[in-house]
Design goal:
8 helices, 10 strands, 4-stranded antiparallel β-sheet, Rossmann fold, single chain, 33% helix, 269 residues
Length: 269
């Protein structure tokens, strides 16, 4: 499988802004993402994280600026990308294997497709559950199948839109470890939207904090490199210091707080 996968792609955003009517969501975003890098996007709800993800995948178009993958512009839905959403979005009448096969690139032969499906189900820990349907497995297992479906596309860029947000705390920790291993196995560049500061620090090579500036829209307020070797120990004192720094940037000095708390704080003001 590793010999046939797509190589990781570079991503470049140049002066990207997105305006809806009179409302500016993103303003003048410029960032380079190296092949194989995992970058996490943090910020309060409404700061444009998911909008930015959609722009990279070609699900939306910037009002100004340009986006390139491997030096070629993104125009429309881009086959070089695969998306994992907050919900698995599996077809309930299909088996897990059939759902994963739905993500295979057009033109994949039957034998290659079966091998790819088996490989990615094994990678995400679902070997033996090929013939189960979504209603027969847990939420965490369904999300694993959604991840396997995305990886079956052999993406150069993996777009992760809060893929673990709907899971219980224990399953989420387990899936964070899995996601880190799988991204390295796939060799894909990854852009992760999350509200969880610790999740960002455990998984990402770099963390970008998006911060809104009133009607001017959100820009990149902080770009923080995370140089702790992977896999990471959550109790590493370096991560604790970075967590404190990020929470301060988000207006939440303290420890063990996610930006969900910031969203709740904003809702009360």
């Amino acid at each position: 499988m590793s010999s046939t996968r797509r190589r990781p792609a570079s991503v470049a955003l140049r002066g990207v802004s997105r305006i809806f009517g009179t409302h500016t969501v993103l303003r003048d975003i410029s960032v380079d993402i190296a092949p194989g890098e995992m970058v996490a996007l943090l910020g309060a709800s409404g700061s444009g994280k998911s909008t930015l993800l959609r722009l990279v995948g070609g699900l939306d178009e910037p009002t100004r600026g340009r986006i390139e993958i491997d030096g070629k512009p993104v125009r429309g839905i881009d086959s070089r990308c695969a998306v994992v959403f907050q919900e698995p979005r599996l077809l309930p009448w299909r088996t897990l294997a059939a759902n994963v096969a739905y993500g295979l690139p057009t033109g994949t032969s039957r034998s290659d497709g079966e091998a790819a499906v088996s490989h990615w189900l094994d990678v995400v820990g679902l070997a033996g559950f090929e013939n189960h349907r979504p209603r027969q497995v847990s939420g965490g297992m369904a999300q694993r199948a959604g991840l396997a479906r995305a990886l079956a596309r052999q993406p150069g860029v993996l777009l992760l839109d809060e893929p673990l947000a709907a899971l219980d705390a224990l399953t989420r920790l387990q899936m964070q470890d899995l996601l880190g291993r799988v991204q390295q196995e796939a060799g894909a560049t990854a852009l992760l939207v999350t509200h969880d500061v610790e999740e960002a620090l455990v998984l990402a090579d770099r963390v970008l904090v998006l911060r809104a500036d009133g009607v001017a829209g959100a820009g990149i307020a902080v770009s923080l490199d995370v140089t702790v070797p992977k896999p990471r120990d959550r109790t590493d004192p370096t991560l604790a210091a970075l967590r404190h720094q990020l929470l301060g940037e988000l207006g939440l000095p303290g420890r063990g707080i996610s930006t969900d708390s910031l969203d709740r704080q904003e809702a009360l003001t």
